[in-house]
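Limitations
The structure tokens in this dataset are predictions for the assembled complex, not deposited experimental models. Users should treat interface geometry with appropriate caution, especially where small molecules or nucleic acid strands are included. An illustrative entry is reproduced here so readers can see what is and is not provided.
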Amino acid sequence: MPARGATVTPTRMSDAANPQLTWNIARDVSELLEYHFMLNALIAGSIVAVMAGLVGWFMVLRREAFAGHTLSMMAFPGASGATLIAVPAAWGYFAMCAAGALAIGRLAGGQRRSRSEQSAGIAAVQATALAAGFLFVSLYGGVLGDLESLLFGNILGVSDGAVMLLAVVAALSLAVLAAIARPLLFASVDPDTAAARGVPVALLSIAFLLMLASAVAATSQITGVLLVFSLLVGPAATAQLITARPAISLALTVALGLLVAWLGLGLAYFSVYPAGFFIATASFSIYALTRVLAGVRAGRRRGGFDEVGAGPPPSGVAA
Amino acid sequence: MLGQEFMRNALLAGTFIALACGVIGWFVVLRGQVFAGDALSHAAFPGALAAAAAGIDQRVGLFAATIAFAAGIGVLGRGALAGRGARASGAEQADDTAIGIVFMFILGLGVFFLTRFSLSSGGVAGIQAAHTLFGSIFGLAGGEARLAAAVGLAVVVGALAIGRPLLFASVAPEVAAARGVPTRLLGIGFLALLGVIAAEATQAVGALLLLGLLAAPAAAAHRIARSPFGGIALAGLLAVAATWGGLALAYAVPSLPPSSAIVGIAVVIFYASTVLA
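Predicted assembly:
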């Protein structure tokens, strides 16, 4: 077991310093902040939480969770393909995610298609990506350790360069999001009216898919490919359950995302289990709790008639 | 090629699993439940790992996970069971999100069990995880292959038995409900069939690649065939063709994994159908 502060890269959290979680939270926090890799993980986690929260909020609103999930799967052939041709995995992530966004836009885009046709197109893109990814892994010849951290995240592996890359990508896509937020909101809520008013709905939808792709590629570096929804869907869905007002809802999404990410990374430091597990569990718990509370409130207001399961989120529950 | 026993087993299991995937997939696409089917197939992964961590037969875990998932989206997004076909409504939003949320939680548990399992068993866990995610159709034993074929056949028979009312309930749920068709029960029964075939097919093509076999031949059949039962038959045929082609290709090219080949051919069929139609 490497000594405290050794340069050997630890393979598991518990190898780093054999940390123990105590009830003295201030001491625990200062202990984990002593490590450079932990600081990097927290900075990267915060960047990703903000970006995934904001983009995810629009994704939940636009009912594009399936597209988001499919884009997260693009990271798999991206990373394995990049390993195969010996370029940095992060480049493969972003390149394949962007390609996936364009393919989804091409195969599933357009208002003419029905929803089931759109989702069939998305499914085909995902199946192609996974088949290719598995092929790349086999051609490379067994990279199971890397595969595991690709699928489930490895917060130990966040280098200074990766943090810089995440910051640049987040800044770029949030700038684009800020620029198109208003028409995008309009086009998401009421696409027909927006199109009639001259809003370029199709262009916005491609731009949004590209933004979603970069958010997904960034998030998967912290939570792993399979758990991007813990930051992308969980906080946004919870916030939309609490309030219908966009500005407050967006702010709440970011706050919840940061809370979930810090909690998950902090707990992962003191345990053998990966951060993705804690982030997903925290994210799910907050959503489930809010859902139950919203149901209780709505039930009381409607005189005991419980209608939580169907329909749009009950608006103004927290008001 | 047919002289090899592993190849005969793979063909036997693959044929019936593919047939069932094609038939069930046709209804999945019709009902607009591709995302639910996708999530259900991924949910098989934590189930298998949980069973492995607990040291019991992985099939128990597979079936438990897919059924738990179906129940979870049933509770959080009630519309998922109603089968509103292709139309978008307010309730569909709740479903989309509910699937995403339950999905994320179940995969989170998968990570937990993978770690737990790998702590106790060294290198076996990684191989087990890879098999669950990507399938190991060439590794099926004779008994497993016969069981897979039987399950596949049973699912096809089950789907055809409820085919007519299910079709009615999928295309016009309100009318069907008014005519006394138990749409909710059909929806649950259908998700159960989907869960069974997802759990069984995971052993052949893997939890990650199952979607290709489920959605691609079915979507192609929807584009080509006009009549419902013609479409169902075509979906089953295309899925079987993709499986046979994939197995033969993977046998001829050893570096090509069989599940990649099967899903690759299924996807090519889908792309060809979009160009033709």
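Some entries come with short summary sentences. For this one: DSSP finds 14 helices and no strands in chain A.
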